[in-house]
């Protein structure tokens, strides 16, 4: 089976992890801050908080921006459920903004219209979470301008987009957002096995996320509410979580980051190969914005005939092409249906879901494997039944 995604673990990665295993620190040692420093430099962001998952980073980002019971948060319906769940963890209500069918990202025009209506109804969101679907940035400048106009916080869910660029600057610099989140899950651009990070340009947001990452505990005497009892002393000053990243994970991440540019370049080369090899087939290829350089975490095609969707998908899987579907629209999940969402709420997202297939794309994918994927897809389209 050719998987849709796969981690690339080298001997250097193994050596970096073994070095930590032999050291005095497995959890909170020097590797986590070193990893944060590398991320800050690459993303041109002043502050970074490394955590045990991107879901944790999204949760901390929402908390740092003051999301709580009675608030509203908007995100894209085409994303992993964590983008929406992070708001629910804070007690907020969730809603969605339909997608641009070319890029699968939140549509700025749909957002603008929804904001106008929400403003009239007195139901503006506290925070908006645009998703960098497949590794390509949304039009963040437009989205940021709207957020500023209405006084709304902005979190970039860039889980797919480590190494991507927008307007010739690295995604993660937070020029057009308050906080940017990346994921280091094994199938992402680089991995720490599990892990994530939240980057920001605001020290107040950094201080909040750093505190909440570790139980709400501080050793900083300037933040304590009563005098120190001695050099051993710490205080819990907020209700935080155990969202810490380990030194083992950070060591793997540091080693992986050294190959970030290579990984993104290879992914873009493979994506261009798919563009060329799939031309002329009855499929819709992923759109690319001129302002963005995608990290190409995913390469997603859409079938021109949705009635053959399942047949093509099953044929590919039966012939050892490990395709996947990213994602089932969040509002159609049973948990979200129970909140009142349903079919027809976000028609562009639902039309995408009826046609989308994620083809294998990862740095270890060979040209021979890619050619097999393409030839098998051609056979699937010929043999498909509605």
Provide a descriptive summary of the structure in words.
With 386 residues, the protein is an alpha/beta fold. It is built from 13 helices and 17 strands. It has helices at residues 11-21, 31-43, 54-64, 82-89, 108-121, 140-150, 203-213, 247-257, 260-278, 309-318, 334-337, 347-353, 367-383; strands at residues 2-3, 47-51, 72-75, 93-96, 127-129, 153-157, 165-166, 169-170, 179-183, 196-200, 217-218, 235-236, 283-284, 292-293, 299-303, 321-322, 356-359. The strands form 5 sheets. It has a 7-stranded mixed sheet, sandwiched between helices. A hairpin with a 2-residue loop joins strand 7 and strand 8. The two termini are 25 Å apart.
Task: Provide a short characterization of the protein structure.
The chain is α/β, with parallel strands linked by helices. It contains 13 helices and 17 strands.
